Amino acid sequence: MSNDNAPLAGLRIIEISAFVAAPLGAMTLAQLGAEVIRIDPLGGNIDYHRWPLAESGDSLYWASLNKGKRSLTLALDTPEGQALATRLICEPGAGKGILLTNLPARGWMSYEALAQHRPDLIMLRLTGNHDGSAAVDYTVNCASGFPEATGATSEPVNHVLPAWDVAAGLYLATGLLAAERVRNRQGVGQEVTLALSDVMLATVGNLGYIGDVQHNGVSREPLGNYLYGAFGRDFATADGRRVMLAAISNRQWRAIGQATGLADKLEAIGPLMEVDMRDEGGRYHARHAIAAVLEPWFAARSLASIEQRFAGSGVLWGVYRSFAQLVAEDARCSTANPMFQTLVQPGIGDCLVPRSPLNFAARHGLQANVAPILGADTEPVLKALLGLDDATLAALRDSRVIPG
After folding, report:
1. What whole-number distance in Å separates Cα of residue 295 and Cα of residue 276?
2. Do both 193 and 301 map to the same domain?
3. Residue 131 falls in the annotated catalytic set
4. pLDDT (tens digit, 9 = 90+) per residue, 105-157?
5. In the chain, how many domains are there?
6. Full domain range(s) for residue 292
7. pLDDT tens for each residue of 226-265
8. DSSP-assigned letters across all residues of 85-115
9. d(CA 32, CA 8)
10. Pick the catalytic residue: 40, 58, 137, 165?
11. Residues 291 and 155 occupy one common structural domain
12. Is 128 part of any domain?
């Protein structure tokens, strides 16, 4: 359902993609009110049945990354299907003529070919490496240095979060809005490319790890669950749970001592180890001693007791949870959080669905949305946007260019 008051109302994006980054980028824009039309080959793209699956066999993964979009399926390996996709991508009008993809952009889908139909075309294209060669989150992550610094041993540990895909999706959304702003000001379109490995490299550089190697000659070593450069670590509770405790500021550090009643013992660590406990670097160097003082306190108390003691204390802490515990225990992951609604996802059933996590001071009526049924919007979109009549649609069905 359109929302003329949404921040991106009037913006139309054609998406031809698969997996995480490009679908996430387009969904981010759809959640802010852009009209996103995803085009897939007949039967769906290679991510259509990706795990996790619902009992029905439908992909929870696909449904979760395509909320708020419209879905077309076309025989993209035929000239007729390619011609229809080209017309949709290059449709004239303000806020249109935008393609987002992470698929090989060659032949009919190259920027040069499409720009012949609309010179001010905007095309956002995700590649693996800057030279166009293939890479995915897993192959990019292993080179980032983070697996070598994760865990407690010299053996690298991969993170299950596809961090580079997620970051790339948000970069794609940002880049698309920047290119659209240029077109509004100057009347010109352009191809914008983003390499997944460059997202990783930019992040490693922006966080100072490249500079640390260059200027200090060091490469961060694995610390287990200790926080690098300040005090933070996980602790086991008496009832078998684990919590994360951190102190970035002096106020947070003092709050730990006050809430646990261990302020004097914690402060005594400074003179013993000749570090300044008012400095986060000093607390980092004394991290093992600090943990030795705190471990028995946590081990003697249940999670409920710790929650009661820390409530309103200013202590910076959190509870470790599995995905199941997150859904069952954390009020932030429920309709108590205005970001969530319970909606019926076709083919799956009731789902807790988030809208955009952005909260605008000016209320735009942004709501959570479900994903479309694959191909369900094919004929309505071709009718409404390209003006195809029933006879033409019937002929396309008969020739298997659109779903029957």
Report:
1. 21
2. no
3. no
4. 999 999 999 999 999 999 999 999 999 999 999 999 999 999 999 999 989 99
5. 2
6. 242-319
7. 999 999 999 999 999 999 999 999 999 999 999 999 999 9
8. HHHHHT--STT--EEEE-S---GGGSHHHHH
9. 6
10. 165
11. no
12. yes
